[in-house]
Amino acid sequence: MSTTDIGTFTIRPLDPLKDAELLHSWVTHPKAAYWMMQDAKLPDVEREYMRIAAHEHHHAYLGLHEGRPAFLMEKYDPRYVELTGLYDPEPGDVGMHFLVAPTDRPIHGFTRAVITAVMDELFADPRTRRVVVEPDVSNKAVHALNEAVGFVPEREIDKPEKRALLSFCTRDQFLAARGVAV
Fold first, then answer.
1. Which part of the chain is the Acyltransferase MbtK/IucB-like conserved domain (predicted)?
2. Which pLDDT tens digit goes with each residue over 153-171?
């Protein structure tokens, strides 16, 4: 749980079948273009999240704001998922994706609060030493958010589906970005 000035965030494991309809509405929304599921049908979303649920190194979670679904979080082991062979992983590396639900009533600072809650959740595990992300190089909005919570870009990499900006954030970098003495 993470409490901010805009409310309380909680994270629970995603139920691929129960949550698929909600996820489908999120991942096919124009705002989610970088999620690369714009043309997905409901069964496609169910299959994708069933695949993730069955994978021992990839996990999906539903984020709640004040008890209502508000974001999707994925956590993965970059040694086996997404970044295999694209960089030299270190012990304690954890990969992350997040998607904020579309809304007709935006709240100022909400997306930053979400990524902060996601990072709090990842670093709550003492084994996590560094969070790894690989957003599309053209996704300037997420690069700014990543930087705001302590990520440092390392280099561009070519993934099968995109050119990505490989970036890292240590626990100390995250705490420093939050203004916590390290």
1. 12-59
2. 999 999 999 999 999 999 9
